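Repro case for the chain-ordering regression, as requested:
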Amino acid sequence: MAEYTKAQLTELIIGKLNRNFGRTVDDATPTHMFKACALVLRDIMSRHQMETGNQVWEGQQRQVHYLSLEFLMGRSLEKNAYNLGLLDTLAEALEGLGFSAADLFEAEPDAGLGNGGLGRLAACYLDSMTTLEIPATGYSICYELGIFKQKIINGKQEELADNWLGLGDAWLIPKMDEAEEVRFGGKIVHSWVNGQNKTEHVGYTAVLAIPRDMEISGYQTKHTNTLRLWDAKSPLPVDMSLYSRGEYLKAVEQQAMAEVIAKVLYPDDNHYEGKSLRLKQQYFFVSATVQSIVRKHRAQYGTLRNFPRKHVIQINDTHPTLVIPELMRIFLDDEGYSWDEAWHIVTDTVCYTNHTVLAEALERWPQDLIESLLPRIWEILKEIASRYQHQLEGYFGGDMNRVARMAIIWGGEVRMANLCVCACQAVNGVSALHSDILKRDVFQDAYQREPDKFKNVTNGIDHRRWLSQVNPKLDALVRECTGSDDYLLHPDAIRDLERFKDDKSVLDRLQAIKQENKRAFAGYVARESGIILNTDAVFDVQVKRLHEYKRQLLNVLHIVALYQQLHDNPNADFTPQTFLFGAKAAPGYHVAKQIIQLINSLAAQVNADPICKDRLQVVFLENYRVSLAEKLMPASELSEQISTAGKEASGTGNMKFMMNGALTIGTLDGANVEMHQQLGDENIFLFGLTADQVADLRRQGYRSMDYYHRNQVLHRVIDQISAGFGDGVAYSDLTNRLLYSAGGGIADEYLLLADFDSYCQAHRRSLEAYADPDRWNRMSLINIARSGIFAADRSIRDYARDIWHVPTRR
Ligand code: 26W
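-- result from build under test --
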């Protein structure tokens, strides 16, 4: 792969500095240098991409189109250099030019075009699809502002705009000639012309979609895929006809309205709000994508009849669901196909992945909004819904409850998940338990009718990034023990590490690596925030979006219990523990923001208390993001995966921790179930109710107050949190939610109190294990050795084989 020498790279970089920025090496800033390097790698990838494109064209290969409103890419310079086999050469070239590669990597802003798990998953999958040489394209929006930057001020989250494009656009290639027009509003006029029904869209507002392509490299392959990010512009600089009528302001307003579509990523995670701008974003990106796919297909084959044989469209959660009626629109209106012909083509092409079972995350668009914004799409949706309703009534007879549950349009709303289930070839969940819940519960009726449609693909992560790149010392140990770097392309091969589970010298080295990584992370935190982490303490970490179902508050309950225990017995033995949190709260999610503030109040109290010195520490890490996770994972020892069973679809952070040798304390939820299957009871700290027990307890009538009264420790913890800590902020709003039902909600909806005792016991078991380093290190090694199934390469092979029906190479 390394086709470039140090001298060649040096020359290319200098060339970019001169031509693109008018700089010499001597007056280049790190920013210039970063951009120059990015442009050099971009050129290499563009060349590879053209070759890939030709091969795919000539081989008439089936292509995967991965549609997602989110791609949480993080940084790309180091990743691309790694994939292209140029990491060392680039570092040497930069050193020769007086720059440090590490500094430049660190200067790159994260491409934060996503919220959390779903967006990061899409990014990992792009890497694997490319590495496995699948012809694939990702599609999304080129948000000007990615996920907000989080600042903690007086313990509270504040949001700042994330203007990533200043540097980040070095990776993007605008393609004006591949722009598409997307139409909003207006009216539909039907007429008969020569015995043919003609559909005309009049009075619409057009928005131009302009591709800004990001090339995606794969590991040690020239195969290169593309992430196509659509930017929104007004079709004309300003509408000249408005100008000539003297309506200057109106013309400018139209332009602004178009451009607002690509302005900002919605920062909601697992919470739906029927905002019209969000619907515009969805249709904008879906329509541009479909038109672009169809245009290229027509150019190659001259017909659309073979469309499903050549394309599969993956719908990442329901956000791109409008791809279904949009494809119908093109086949019906532009191609003149009959309804049945069009429907066959569409349903043979689309597949849907569900990523959440939370009711509040389900997208249900008000029908008036769709009708006024997308009049033709609304007509098509009505037709799809009524035909489906007919079929359901035929199948389920008089059982109107079931027909109602499955309806696509109901009560003035369009239910996107039901539309996906109706139209898609395949519907999959993202872990074994989650896929079971979809079949047994969320989509039970559809499952009964079409059981073969429902599949599982357990999530996976890009193990090259999340192990080899971020934890080079561990990577070196794995290579040495397994005798090769096979595991990079064959993640199962990491299993071979297990031969060393009783090898004291290997276990000691594993421990030493963890210790060095902890120190490195502590150094970073000290530089960034001035906080001094206790590297002799267990690093106990919970990082993920802040959500009640993820139960950061349960973690807090346990820490407060430890704090009180320390105060009761200051002289008793106490294993030093450092609790690290990182989480963004959706800006409108008040309870989540209160929990962040609580963590900071608790941190201030604990960290200032002399009794806690060198024993108990609590730190909230500001602005958790991909690049921070990359530093944190290698330094983590205990991974908190403590969601209420049945609620976390999969989790993927859990996999990153495991691969880096952290042990999991967790519930049997999401992919923790498969993790437990791999590890057995003895290599994971499980606690709490199972998903079935949760359902039973809810049916019987869960009363959190009983736990409060029965458990003295818990009682005291809750009372203290309610009263608050030294900063004088009281948190009775939060504790009241645990004890009392209000506003139709139930008390302690996520059963924290039911799991509290079991959680504390699991923590005690983890500390016992920690007290015996050989035992802990052995468990850690076994976790790493058995993490191969959580590689995204495995997930992508599953998708390719079971859902996409495309070959994988290598
Ligand atoms: C419309 C509002 C909204 C926004 C985002 C609803 C739902 C979402 C996402 C589907 C939430 C999400 O990221 N889900 C996570 O997906 C991961 C990848 O499959 C899983 O590992 C996580 O368990 C799941 O919470």
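Ordering looks correct now. The chain is about 50% helix and 15% strand.
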